[in-house]
Amino acid sequence: MPIRIRILLLAFLTISSVGVTLFVQYRAVSTEVERLEQSSQIISEVRHTSLLIHALQKERGLSASFLVNMDAVSVETIQQQRRLTDSIINQSKAPILTADWLTAFHNGLPTIRERVDSDITSWNAARSFYTDAITSALDTITIKILDGEQVGSNRVMMAVVSLAHSREHLGLIRAGISRIYRQNTYMNDDIQDVTRHYGAYTEHQRAFSRDLTGHNRDLFMSQVYTDAHETVTHRIESVLGFLKGHRDHHTANTWWDEVTLVIDTMKTVEDNIYGDLSRQISHQIEGKQAQLIKYSLVALFLAAIIAVLTVLTVIRILKAMKVLVQTLSHVMASQDFKTRIPHGATVDEFEKINFSINNLLSYTDTLIEEKEFLANTDNLTGILNRRSFTEGVQKELDRKKRYGGSLGLAVCDIDHFKAVNDTFGHNVGDQVLKYFASLLQAQLRQSDLLGRWGGEEFVILVPQAKEDNLRALGEKLRACIEEADFPGVGSISCSIGLAEVRSTETFEDIFRRADDALYKAKNNGRNRIEVAS
Predict the structure, then answer these.
(1) Residue 57's beta-bridge partner residues?
(2) Which of 5, 151, 236, 393 has its CA 20 to 30 A from that of 301?
(3) 456 catalytic, yes or no?
(4) Coil/strand/helix, residue 377
């Protein structure tokens, strides 16, 4: 598998892993938001149900007074309350109430109202209908707010439940005492009923005070336990005979206004608690939604960063690999080890690899140059050896055939060199050969080729040289050698054979003629030059 495919696959898996992780977090937060929104909806429904209960409690209390005294004011008051109750029912947003409850309520409410208006029902029957409906609705609310789904501690929820139930019992007390005031007599059944509900009311109030916690505790407590509440409590205990002295014979209307104010205040406190819960939920929803946005942005940012880094990495790798492959392919094809991988603008691992490969190429080039030098150079004198000289001559011959011109060859031999070795030893002889080669090299042009043909014999290729030029060069070289002082030996001489290359000659041909001229010079007394005819 190509490396770029592997990198892309790795990037895809990384992005997928990040995406899955963030999706799990996103889903968890989203689920929490859904739960909070459901909780907020339930609180809204509970508040509306509580409003309906409040209206039914007031209608029940007015029905109690109406059954005692059906005057015009009572008729108008109860009709007005019924219209308010019907309005709340028509605007109902409380699906938490069961279908059975709604069916029974809608079927029974018109009937009980008609019976109350016609005075053909007892207070116990009317109270039973309203109380059953209210109690059932309160039970539904209790189940909903205590099912663990709402925000807030269970103690706060218990405080809300206790407050709702205490309001219900106070509503029943309101109805009972209203009847007592309107009848202007203390019926034993009414007293017993008020006594029972007052005990329950007191117990729920204690539970409310006990369970209410949080920074709003003092605020809510101060809103419930007002002077009006103390007055109502005093009225109830006076009616029940708990206080010393005569029982209170207050007017029904005054009592109704006082206790209704307390019940309304309790309803307001209950709404405020629900409002606090709603605000807490809204705040948490906002926080969770901010988390959702953050997770989304983080996911997009990470995906973008990974994608960009992946693309840039793949591009960098492909570019670096392309340059590397092209350079190495060129080196292998051309055997040009002087080629180098160009430097990039970015210093990274590939640049370090390129640097190392360039060092390797430099080292290889040095080895090749040394190898070629050793292969083409005479070890003793440092000039061209026989093989490399032959190659150089062949190139000049090819050039002469292509472009024309003249070319000459000189073959030099040290006179009586064997005697030097025999007399002074081979080490001195080697020094003579080296010094001899250096003297010849110093007299030649840069375009001339000097090589050691073997032993004490040297060859010189002279481009663009006619016979006269060769003769002058040969004499110059001979004189230079004759005049030189060779360390450890003194004076020596050399013989030189010269030949100008003819148009159809090969290297073997020209060498043979120059070599013949050399032997002629030796035979004619040495320390001289001869030019081949």
Answers:
(1) none
(2) 5
(3) yes
(4) strand
What dihedral do alpha carbons 133, 138, 139, 143 form, nearest 10°? 140
- Which residue in the list 456, 500, 505, 530 is annotated as catalytic? 456
Contacts of 346-354 with C-beta under 8 Å, sequence gap 24+, read: 346/316, 348/316, 350/316, 350/317, 350/320, 350/324, 353/320, 353/324, 354/320, 354/323, 354/324
Bridge partners (DSSP) of residue 348 are none
The answer to whether 318 and 4 are in contact (CB under 8 A) is: yes
Instruction: Characterize the bridge pairing of strands 494-500 and 529-531.
Output: parallel
Q: Strand, helix or coil at 355?
A: helix
The residue among 152, 201, 145 whose CA lies nearest residue 173 is 201
DSSP string, 481-522: HHH--BTTTB---EEEEEEEPPTT--HHHHHHHHHHHHHHHH
Q: Are 163 and 270 in contact (CB under 8 A)?
A: yes
**How far does Cα 245 stand from its chain's mean position?**
82
In angstroms, the CA 308 to CA 288 distance is 30
Q: Among 84, 79, 110, 91, which Cα is nearest to 49's?
A: 91
Q: What is the Cα–Cα distance from 435 to 438, expressed in whole angstroms?
A: 5
Please, are residues 494 and 527 in contact by the beta-carbon 8 Å criterion?
A: yes
* Residue 169, burial from CB neighbour count under 10 angstroms (0-12, 13-18, 19+): buried
Question: Amino acid identity, residue 37?
Answer: E
Note the pLDDT tens digit of each residue in 233-269.
888 888 887 654 445 556 778 888 999 999 999 888 8
Q: Of 133-137, 159-163, 346-350, 449-453, where does the model show the most confidence? A: 449-453
CA 62: distance to chain centroid? 68
Helix (H) or strand (E) segment spanning residue 373: helix 349-376
DSSP H or E run through 408:
strand 407-414
Element at 230 (helix H, strand E): helix 227-239
Top mean-pLDDT range of 17-31, 34-48, 108-122 = 108-122
Q: 93, 45 in Cβ contact below 8 A?
A: yes
Q: Is 72 helix (H, G, I), strand (E, B) or coil?
A: helix
Q: Where are the alpha helices (DSSP H) in 69-98?
A: 72-90
At 379, phi and psi to the nearest 5? -65, -35
Tens digit of each residue's pLDDT (9 = 90 or more) over 275-327: 888 888 888 888 877 877 887 787 778 778 877 877 777 777 778 778 878 88
